[in-house]
Amino acid sequence: MPIFGPNEQQLKEIAKKDYDKAVALKGDSRKEDAYRMRIGLRARGHIDKLFVEAAQKAEKFNDIAMIHIAQGKPAPEPPKPSNFMKLMTASGEVWSYIPEEYSVLVFKYGMLYQSMNVSGPKAIFNVQRIIDSISNELKLPNQLMALEFLRTQLAEEGMDVDAEIIALEPDDGADLEEV
Q1: DSSP bridge partners of 84
Q2: Label partner for 5 (CA 20 to 30 A): which of 48, 72, 164, 172?
Q3: What ranges make up the beta strands (E) of 1-110?
Q4: Residue 53, domain extent
């Protein structure tokens, strides 16, 4: 190990091990619940930050794609999400990990929202389903709320976000892929 602590790759490996350990915990002691919740809160922060990153990258990607199309060139490959994210916490920086199946979907909804191909409530609804899946995987006792910043922003704009989300309840067999 380096003199000044683990390098970025080692920190990412630790983040993945932390997530996998939280998923694998079988008991329900206070210590295990606290560990699961800590990893769940990291996942929520990761998801919120990934959604914002996707929206920012969508804007740049859409601009570049339009230029390519105008020049008769094929559109570039869309940006890809990372399963790892550096987060700031009260105790300093920490790395977070979420499985690729979740990061891809969160990123997709962030890009769709920024491109106005999905409404704010629809993006919140789908990302909430993703964090609910992670919460179930981690066996968390309490539900985590995804994209609170977007909920607040839409509410400040006069939208009844909860009513809009309730109206989106899935029909028979709707899944995370639905847009």
Answers
A1: 97
A2: 48
A3: 84-89, 92-97
A4: 8-166
